[in-house]
Input
Amino acid sequence: MSEATGLKSWLTTTDHKRIGKLYFWTAFVMFLIGGLEAELIRIQLAKPENTFVTADTYNQLFTMHGTTMVFMALMPLAAAFFNYIVPLQIGARDVAFPRLNAFSYWVFLLGTVFMNASWLLPHHPAPDGGWFGYATLTEKQFNPGPNIDFWLLGLQILGIASLAAGFNFIVTILNLRAPGMKMMRLPVFSWMTLVTSFLMITAFPVITVALVFLMFDRVFGTHFYLPSAGGDPVLWQHLFWLFGHPEVYILILPAMGVVSEVLPTFSRKPLFGYTVVVYSGVLIGFMGWGVWSHHMFSVGLGPIADSVFALTTMLIAIPTGVKIFNWLATLWGGQIRLTTAMCFALGFIGLFTIGGLSGVTHASPPADLQQTDTYYVVAHFHYVLFGGTMMGLFAGMYYWWPKMTGRLLSEPLGLVHFWLTFIGMNLTFFPMHFTGLLGMPRRVYTYSHDLGVDDMNMVSTIGAVILGIGMIVFVYNIWRTRKHGAVAGPNPWGGATLEWSIPSPPPVHNFDVIPNVTSRLPLWDSSPAPKAPPGHIHVPGGSWWPMVAAAGLPLMALAPLTHTLWIVFVGGAVLIYGIYRWAYEPFEV
Amino acid sequence: MPFAPTFRGLRDAVPPQRRHLILLSTLLALGSIAACAGPFPQSTLSPTSDFGHSIDHLFRGIFWWAVGVFIVVEGILLYSVIRFRHRDGAPAPTQHHGHTTLEIAWTLAPALILVFIAVPTVQTIFATAKAPPGSLRVEVIGHQWWWEYRYPDLGIVTANELHVPVGKPVSVDITSVDVIHAWWTPKLGGKRDAIPNHHNEISFTADSVGEYMGQCVEYCGASHANMRLRTFVDTDSAFQAWVAAQKAVPSLPATGSPEAAGRAAFQKYGCIGCHTVAGYSNGPIGPNLTHVGSRSMIAGSIMMNTEQHLRDWIANPPGMKPGSIMPNLHVSGPDLTALIAYLQSLK
Output
C-alpha cells in the first residue's frame, strides 16, 4: 500500500501520523516565534531604563510570549505526540475520529494565524492584556482597540481545537486498544494523554465561558466584570484560574508521560512503581481542580479561603514527589545510556524538582504575598514549564524522531543542544529567583537602577542568548538529519512499547497485524513472532470538509472583531456546510 | 557526518554527570553577585516591620526544607547517573517493578514535611489577618498610574508618598478606581491587590525610621512599570509635624510674583479641572497637589522632584510616562517656568 504524496494529500489527510507532523511543525514554528518574543523581552531588560522597545510593544511581547507558549507551542507540541505516538502505543490503526482529528488541527492552525495576524496590521494591535487577561484592564473602557478582541477570539477558536482533540483521544484510548492491552498495561505516555484529554474537555469550557462574558462586555455592553454596574473583576480571576490551574497540568502531564517512557528505555529497567505513577497522574488531574485560588492569594479572599487553598496546594506536592522518587528508583540499578533523549529526561527531573520546590514556597500564602507578581514567580514557572515541560518534550523529540522520520537526529549535535539549553536555561532563570526576592515586579518594561538588580538581569539576558544558540543548533540538527541522519530501523533504542515493533516511519495502516498484548513491556517480555502479511487493510481516505468547517470559525470571529454582523452568518454558513458535507461524505474517497 | 568527530570530542570533555557541578557553581556565582551588589531598597529579605518579619521567618523555614529535599533528590539523581552508567558487557539489570514499603515511605515523607510547613503557614495567615485596635488608618486608592492616600481620621489627602509613624500599628485599606493594581512596599511586608469595589486590608508596625521604595505589582496597563511609590517611616514628632503641614492650606502667593503667575497658568491650562489644590481647585482626576512641593518624587515616584524634572514632565507627560492620562498641554516658555515656581511653592 503506497502513500499518496503532494500538497492535496496533506491538506485532506486524516492519517494521525500526518496530522501529528502538521501539529509538530506548526507548534515548532510557534515555539520559535514565542522564543523570539522572549529574546526581545530579554534584550529590553538587559539594562535598566532601556529603550529598545516601547512600553506598548513590550506589553504586547510579554502577552504574546505567554499566550503563544501556552496555547500555540507547548500544548500542540504535546498534541503532536498524542497524534503520532498514542495510536502506535496502543496498537491502533488510527484515532477514533480521523476527520475530527483533521478538524482539530485546522482549527488550531487558523486560530493561531488569526491571533498572530494582529502583529501584521498597521500599528500592530497585538494583544497586550497579559496571557491572564485580567478584567477590568481588558475591558473596552481601558483597552478600546482591537488588541484584546484578537486575543479573546483567538483563544475561543483554539479552545475548540483542544476540545475536539480531547474527546478524540479519550475515545481512542478507551476503545481502540489492541487485544490484551488492559488499562494497566497502557504505556504511561498514553495514560498521561488520557488524563490530559480529560482535563482539556473539562477545563476549556471554563475559559470559554470567561471569554464569552468578556466578549459580551466588550461587544454588547454587558457588565460581567465591570464593578460600575454591579459586576466583579474577581469573577474573571476565578474563572480564568479554575481553567488555568488544570491547564498547568495539561502542560506538564504529557512531559511526565514522555519521561516515563524514556527513563525505562535508557535504564533498561521497567518503570518503577508503574501503578503508583499512573495513579499519581490521575490524582494530580483531580487535585488540579482544587487549587486555583493559590494564583489569587493577593486578591484578599480571606484567611479561611487562603488556608484551605494553601493546604490543597501543598497536598498536590505529594503525588508529584512520589513520581519523582519513582523515576529515581527506575534509574537505580539500571544500565543508564546517556543519549540526548535521556539527558533531557534527566534534566527534566533535576529542573522540575527546583520548580516544584519553589512552588512549595509560594503555596504558603503569607510567603506568596512577598513573591507573587515578582520575578521569583517567573523563575518558578519557567523551571516548571521550560525545565519541566520543554525538557520533557525535547526528550520526546529525540526519542521519537527516528520513529516519525525513519532517521536518527545526530547525537553529538543533540548533546550540544542539550548542554546549551541546560546551561542557558539555568543562567536565564536561576538569577530571577534573586531578582524577584529583591523586589523586581513582573511585566515591567523598565526598572530602576536603584533596585540593584542590573547584573542579575544582564546574566539572565546572556542565558537567553545561549538558549537561542542552542535552538539554532537544534534546527540545524533537524535540517541535517533529513538527508544525513542515520537510518533508524524499527527499534533503534531497544524500546519496549508497541510503536517500536513496526517500521520507522510506520506504514499508513501502522500494523500489518494488530498485535496481541500480553504484558506492559511487550517487546522486552516476548519477541512477537513475525506475522503473515495481511490481505486488504481498510484505511480511511482524505477529506476536504474538516478544513472547510474549520475555516468557518475564524470567519465568524471576524464579525465581533470588525463589529460587522453579517460576517457571522457567512462564517456560520461555511461551518455548517462543511459539517454537512462531512457528515454525508462516504469515507472512502 | 562531518560534524561528528569535533562534537564527540566536546562530549568527552564535559561528561554529562558534571552538569550538576555546573549548576552548583552557577548557583554560587549568582549568590556572590547577589551578595556583593546592593543596597536593595525593595528586598523582601531584610524586612523592617512585624508583618515583614513574620513572612520572612515563615519563608526561611520553608526554604530550608526545600534545600533539604533538593539535596536528597539531586544527590540521588547524580549518584544514579554516575554509579549505574551503562558499561559494555555488564549483565542486564534486575527488572524491579516496584517496592510497596519504599513507595509508602516516600509518600509519607513529603506529607510529614508538609505538616511542618502547613502549621506555621496557617498560624501566620491568621496572626497577620487583622489590624490591632487603635491602628492609624490609611486608605490607598490605585489609579492609572499613581497612588492616592487618604487618612480618614486626620483629614489628609495626598499622593504617591505615604508617611507613617515608627512603632505604631498602621492599617492600610486598599482599593482602586479603574483597573486592578497591587500595593507593595516590600520591606514593610506583603502586597495586596487594589481591586475596584473591593477593600483589602494589610497592617504593619514599622520598626525603623527611613524611606522605603515600593511599586505597583499587578499589571495595570501601559505604564505599570512607572507606578511606583515611597513610604516614609517617621519618628513620632516628625510625623506630627508632617501631619500639621499637610493640614495647612497653602497661602496665596504675593501679587506679581512668579508663583502668582504660575497660579494663573494652573487655571489657564486647565490643571484645575483634574487636580485639587486646597483653597483653590477641586479636580477629582489626578493627584492632589496641595503640598506637591513637599514631596521628594513626582509623576508616580519615577523622578526626583527637581525643577528640571518638573519641566520635562509638564512639557510632555506621555513622553515620560507612556499612556499618561495627563495630556501634553503644550505648556512652555514663561508659563512653564511660572507653573513650576508655583508647584514648588506648594510645600
Notes: Chain A touches chain B through 110 residues (CB under 8 Å). Residues 55-89 of chain A form the longest helix (35 residues). The beta strands of chain A are 407-408, 486-487.
